[in-house]
Amino acid sequence: MRPETEFTPRDLFDRPLQDLRISVIDQCNLRCQYCMPEEHYTWLAKRDVLTLPEIARLVNIFMSLGVTKVRLTGGEPLIRPDLPQIVGELASRLGQGLNDLAMTTNGVLLARCAQELKSAGLQRVTVSLDTLRAERFSALSRRNRHAAVIEGIHAVPAAGFTGTKIDTVVMRGLNEDELADLIEFGRTVPAEVRFIEYMDVGGATGWSESKVVSRNEILASVAEHYGQVPRPLNEGGAAPADRYALPDGTVFGVISSTTQPFCRTCNRSRLTADGVLLTCLYALDGVNLRKPLREGASDAELRELVAGVWLTRSDRGAESRLAQRPRSTFVPLDSLQRDPHLEMHTRGG
Hints:
The chain is an alpha/beta fold and about 350 residues long. The chain is about 30% helix and about 15% strand. It is built from twelve helices and twelve strands.
């Protein structure tokens, strides 16, 4: 049944609520250095994780407030055993108010379930891949699963998916010399590669501004390789990536959250695996929706709660981070580690 849209709330900067990212599980089978520490993390208790019916009900609430896009994230979403059932349930809303249903994954388990997810109704897949070199992958992720990720990426088009994306976090001294190689790899999939500036969020315990490769540097590197400055596509909208075309028409993107944030157009809300609503990737706290949901709140009460959060939203987290540099005014990383909700692996990136 199509959730009736009552109104689309706009926050204090006139940004609508349109995009919902759902972390279906906080656990992950990699330990990427920019996402979570090797130790000192806490998995959620199973009883605290939202069930399929709870996810479905909350999606209805968000859709009634204007959400048209849902992305399933983690942790690593493919770890969750009932993910195909979650996809199937949400896919039943496509064409009934939901326009886009996608997933972000690290790809380790993708080869064995890509076809099942496609059959369940998943529309698009984004795979995280930071390097084409196995030894670099092992050093970054602290796991030897590079071959599995590559196999998973190739399974995506084989299952019938289109519009595939590859997300690459670019870090100085690690993989900034692979930009053109990754674009060329993307051609073979096919997939659009998106380069992401290294962000100082939660689990990025080794973050340093010196490791950030800026959008301007990324574009200069690509231009040097291809002999021509990439052409900006100037599409506008609320998408996080600025997209560019190479001379032959190949498109890639750059997400410059660190040096040129897109806060002014951000229409994203985030739901953690245990039902905490976050209105910014950098948010230090959120609103617990699981508690009223399990205590018998009506749809109207839940809708009022979510709408109230969004109407008072003033987050511009990345812009605030940028304005603070180079002063040492960030939340200490050791305090971030004590609260699992502040780790990147709990909020889906």
